TrEMBL record:
Residues 417-476 form the SH3 domain. InterPro entries: EPS8-like, EPS8_2nd, EPS8_PTB, Eps8_SH3, PH-like_dom_sf, PTB, PTB/PI_dom, SAM/pointed_sf. Belongs to the EPS8 family. It comes from Lepisosteus oculatus (Spotted gar). This is EPS8 signaling adaptor L3b.
């Protein structure tokens, strides 16, 4: 602004002025006392500061107002939008009880901390966060942050809703996403399955690649072919759907790093050899029965058809025994299971061709078996899921009618007869829509274990494939434990002390807190104030109060919708 009328216009002074404002003949001591850091030094300091900020994964801390915690029950509350609708209902009733707190990342966990006392109100691992969203201008709360959490061994998915006044929800969401991604990158090199390969596989070549774990194979739709030792997991051997795969069955990679091709070939040849033995035995038995039936005069058959029911099913003299009939039918079932494994691997004849051959034999046996209740009673071996899938795809209408007439022993897959439950030993992140993400400690039900990659179902009824070597068998009573996860304890005003105790234990409170509060009824516990809880449980009273607020909100919503407020 003083370009032309400057009070200190340099044009009026013809002395030895430099561009930095110092005289040429000024002593160096005076110049050094007045000099400022160079532009380069300032830029370097700013750069180091920026790098120090970006290097810190745990610098996430924001002051927020917790509004409400909802649970996705897959009945009335399916999405985050449903949770926002619940919040609006509570606000219309004047029942939103907000609480100011700090939302911060500590290590690998996201914590809710009381601003004044610094007491931890809630904590869950970053890896349990399923989704983070910013909902803007949807109601009186105009900057809502939603965090969807699914903790391991808990069937219910929780959605936390926060109002972000000081810093917008969009900014908080971006920073939290960044913290989550940084933590995932770190754990990918620390406690992820890829750093526990020797424990998983139980075998490893002598001293090979000990210093650097091999990288995970990319998803199948980007494979260019197998590379030796590129992964310690078996290559996915499940069948991809047509939308995500371009491989034909003949092109599907069959390479398995932990099982050399020679072993695969040996196993294939062994299965083919066993199938040939099964077919030979069935053929011999069919010939034996056919020879006896052929010797039975037609008139004698007609006479027998007119006899009373007790004599109608009397075995024809010379027919094999009941045990022999049952044994042959067991071999046919075992043949179906072998064909499930060999489907797509044998040709001329193919697995579907053999299916029709075995059904022809089965039809002959059932029509000539004098013990009509015998075929449906042949329980073992149960058909495997791949065998069931093959039969469903290939049987003719007549074969399908015969198959259905044999009952559950021939139609229920082995995985459904006695549900098998496994515990997850290591995290696994799905890489496509055919796989299922699981976390250490989860309990899953095995649906199909006929291949190296098992199809499993988690507690949220989601299904997908996982490497079999990330699972371990469960001892004692796995089904009861699985049901406990599916039906976690709840709390309401009619809860008895033992139910209150179970709820406190499920929420992870300490033994002393459970002992002090577990003697109360649900009505008494829900009626306690924060100060009362703190006086009884100084360490965890604030956390208990925070959890009770979520219960009260849920009960209020149930009452508003006309449901029994004590349904929980």
């Amino acid at each position: 602004m003083y370009r032309n009328n400057s009070l200190f216009d340099s044009r009026d002074y013809e002395g030895p002025f430099l561009s930095n404002g110092f005289l040429r003949d000024e002593p160096s001591s005076e110049r050094s006392s007045l000099s400022r850091p160079s532009a380069k030094a300032i830029y370097k300091q700013r750069k180091e500061y920026a790098e120090s900020i970006t290097r810190q994964p745990d610098n996430f801390q924001f002051r927020v107002e917790h509004l409400f915690t909802s649970e996705l029950d897959n009945r009335e509350v399916h999405t985050v939008d449903d949770c926002i609708s619940q919040l609006k209902q509570l606000d219309a009733q004047g029942r939103v009880w907000g609480q100011d707190m700090l939302l911060e990342v500590q290590g690998s966990s996201l914590q809710l901390t009381d601003i004044e006392t610094k007491e931890e109100l809630e904590s869950f691992p970053l890896r349990a966060i399923v989704e983070v969203k910013a909902v803007l201008h949807s109601c009186v709360y105009d900057s809502i942050l939603t965090i969807t959490v699914q903790e391991r061994n808990k069937s219910r998915t929780s959605v936390f809703l926060f109002q972000c006044e000081e810093m917008g929800a969009e900014h908080v969401r971006a920073d939290l996403d960044k913290a989550i991604n940084q933590r995932r990158e770190e754990t990918g090199n620390q406690d992820n399955i890829r750093d526990n390969l020797e424990n998983i596989i139980g075998q490893q070549g002598p001293r090979q690649q000990r210093n650097k774990p091999p990288p995970l194979l990319p998803p199948m739709d980007r494979w260019s072919g197998p590379e030796p030792h590129s992964s310690q997991w078996t290559t996915p051997d499940y069948e991809e759907d047509n939308h995500s795969q371009q491989f034909t069955p003949q092109e599907e990679p069959q390479y398995m790093p932990e099982e050399p091709p020679d072993l695969q070939k040996a196993e294939l040849e062994r299965n083919v050899e066993i199938l040939n033995h099964v077919l030979n035995d069935v053929e011999l038995f069919i010939g034996q029965v056919g020879a006896v039936v052929a010797q039975t005069p037609g008139k004698e058959k007609e006479k027998k058809s007119k006899k009373n029911k007790s004599k109608k099913n009397a075995p024809v003299q010379g027919l094999p025994s009941t045990g022999e009939f049952a044994s042959c039918m067991q071999k046919i079932k075992y043949g179906f299971n072998l064909l499930g494994k060999l489907n797509g691997k044998i040709h001329n004849p193919s697995a579907p061709d053999f299916v029709h051959i075995l059904f022809s034999a089965l039809g002959f046996l059932t029509s000539n078996c004098p013990w009509r209740d015998l075929p449906p009673s042949v329980l073992t071996p149960l058909l495997t899921p791949p065998a069931i899938q093959l039969l469903r795809q290939e049987v003719s209408p007549e074969e399908d009618q015969l198959w259905c007439s044999l009952g559950d022993a021939w139609n229920v897959p082995s995985s459904n007869e006695n549900p098998r439950y496994m515990r997850v030993m290591y995290d696994f992140m799905a890489r496509n829509n055919q796989e299922l993400s699981i976390m250490k400690g989860d309990i899953v039900q095995v649906l199909d274990d006929s291949r190296q990659w098992w199809r499993v179902r988690n507690i949220r009824e989601e299904e997908g494939f996982v490497p079999h070597n990330v699972l371990e068998s469960m001892e004692e009573n796995p089904q009861a434990e699985y049901q406990d996860v599916l039906n976690p304890p709840s709390l309401n005003k009619t809860s008895k002390p033992q139910e209150v105790k179970a709820w406190l234990e499920y929420k992870g409170f300490s033994k002393i807190t459970v002992r002090c509060l577990g003697v109360l009824s649900g009505s008494l516990l829900l009626g306690m104030t924060r100060d009362e809880l703190k006086s009884v449980c100084p360490e965890e009273g604030g956390r208990v109060f925070f959890q009770l607020q979520a219960v009260k909100s849920s009960l209020a919503l149930a009452s508003e919708s006309g449901q029994d407020p004590y349904y929980r």
